Amino acid sequence: MQKIEGNVWNFGKDIDTDLIIAARYLNTSVPEELAKHVMEDADPDFVNKMSVGDIIVAGENFGCGSSREHAPIALKAAGISAVIAPTFARIFYRNAFNMGLPIFELEESAQIQEGDRISIDMAEGTVTNKNNGMVYVFTPIPEFMQKLLHAGGLMGFAKNEIAS
Fold first, then answer.
1. Would you state the pLDDT for residue 90?
2. How far apart are CA 131 and CA 66, in angstroms?
3. What is the pTM of this model?
4. Where are the domains of the chain?
């Protein structure tokens, strides 16, 4: 998972966990069920327009609100390959890594437009906009968090650690 490439969907700042997955759907924790409703209150047709591998680029404070793990689970299950924002709510940041959803802090995220195709290189620490050639450097992800992502989250990490 050193490189991620996908098309961009833009969302604004302060996207809270209720916009990511509305509370009315929290009667289940089945990822496939949650995926059907991801970002529904922000864009009711989002799941029908997006494709597996797409990337969300948002404003600051993405994932604010409650501490529910359902939000990164729903994004990942829907096929979102990564989220880029200048800042993330602290608990969402950790939950995303625990669930194996790659997220990247990038100050210049507002320069990336919806419909752009971007490539994220975790080893290089860069985001490249394939539409205009711009290259951005993101805040490095600590090595142990990269290992979590590579394992698919905490459950995959624990399974790999037990097996070795």
1. 94
2. 35
3. 0.92
4. 3-163
